[in-house]
Specification:
282 residues, alpha+beta, N-terminal domain of MutM-like DNA repair proteins, Helicase, Ruva Protein, domain 3, 2 domains, 8-stranded antiparallel sheet, 8 helices, globular, DNA-binding
Length: 282
Amino acid sequence: MPEGHTLHRLARDLTDAFAARGVRVSSPQGRFADEAALLDASTVESAEAWGKHLFVTFTGERVVHVHLGLYGSFAITAGVESVPAPVGQVRLRLVAADDERATYADLRGPTACTLMTPAEQGAIVDRLGPDPLRPDADPERMVERVRRSRAPIGTLLMDQSVLAGVGNVYRAEVLFRHRVHPLRPGTAVRRRTLEAMWDDLVGLMEEGVRTGRIDTVRPEHTPEAMGRPPRQDDHGGEVYVYRRTGQPCFVCERPVRTDVLATRNVFWCARCQPAYRPRAVQ
DNA sequence: AACTCATGCGAAT
DNA sequence: TTCGCCTGAGTTT
């Protein structure tokens, strides 16, 4: 499930599976049927991710824009002898086949699946903040936006126009790793803290692309190092605070706290991430 | 079997 | 601020 690392991994895998190949394009569910018919039997040029947005470019300057939302999925199955009948509501199916084997990808439950022009793609990208997974990203844009805003840092990190690709797990975890309380105003987060958080996100999210999961605990806090049972959970990775409400902090043993911020549950340790206490105004 | 909640976000109210 | 998307894992009945 999708934060930025999921989309970048998917872009890489779709490119490997389909780029420069002729593809059959269909919409078994029907909701993308007209567009699929226009694309059918053309060639995929590439797939690319910006933040949580995925763009699959076909010949003729046609771009399929996909956003998975909260529970969408785009599953690639390579090297099958025959392509099975669709299971569930498949919005978009891509199939590349030679005489022997077929590779197919099924898109289910996306928030967005639309056919657009490169110019329209550009307009979406222009609305996004820098993406830690893009080598050309400029972290200074994020730093400036945060430091000009009195909104809580926990809200700003989820704002895709401030920073693209971070979702609810990376938000909670990067704040913990840098000992920043989620409600601290952007204006009160030090520049060097924001720069360190950016660098940290680059490393964490690149690892996420490699492994397909979100792992944020440092070596000294892994299950093996601490002799604790590994997390058994739907996202699979080892984390400090995300969805650990009431359980002891791995660093200080205080129970993890939660509240709602930017319409989503946020998690933090009240000791490791002390509350912001503004100095009295003169 | 039914229900709840979730790594998200745009549209409707 | 609430709703809808309409998937899927985990929990409760």
